[in-house]
Fold this sequence. Notes:
The protein is α/β, with parallel strands linked by helices. The chain has helices at about 15-30, 45-55, 70-75, 95-105, 120-135, 135-165; strands spanning about 5-10, 35, 60-65, 85-90, 110-115.
Amino acid sequence: MSKPFVAILMGSDSDLPIMEAAFDTLDKLGVPFEAKVSSAHRTPEATHTYVKDADARGAGAFICAAGMAAHLAGAVSANTLKPVIGVPINSSLDGLDALLSTVQMPGGIPVATVAIGKAGAKNAAYLAAQILGTSDAELHQKLIDERKANADAVIAKDASLQEKLAQR
C-alpha cells in the first residue's frame, strides 16, 4: 500500500509562486504530493472529477489555493470527507475577500483555513503533514525534529543578540 499523498489544487496558475512554499515544505518533509490548476467556477466538472479520483487513489488531505471569491476549497470539501485546507490568495482587497470566502463555510462542509499568501501556503503544508503524521510515525518524528530545529535556531539568534548587547 502506498503512502497517502497531499493533493494541491490552485484556482489559477498565478497562484503558483505562492504555493511553491507548500511544495518546498512537503518536499523537505518527504511528503508526496501532486498539484493541479483547477477552478471551482471555470472548470467545475474537472475539479469534481479530480477530487473524486485523488480521493480514490489515496489522497490523505487536500490543499486548495484561491483568490477573490475563493470557492475552490469549499467545492473540494463538498466532494470529499478528507481534510481540506484552504489558502487564501491575495489577488484583490488585500486577500480579505479570499479569506472570508474560504473560512465562512456552512456547517457540515469544513475547511481549515490558514493565513493569506506564502505563510499560509507553508502552514497548509505543515498542517497536511501533521494530519498525515497521526498515522505515520516516521513523518511525525520529522515534524518533531523540525520544531526542535526551529526552536534551536531562535535560541541561537537570541544568544547572538545577548552577546552583542554585552559588548556594548
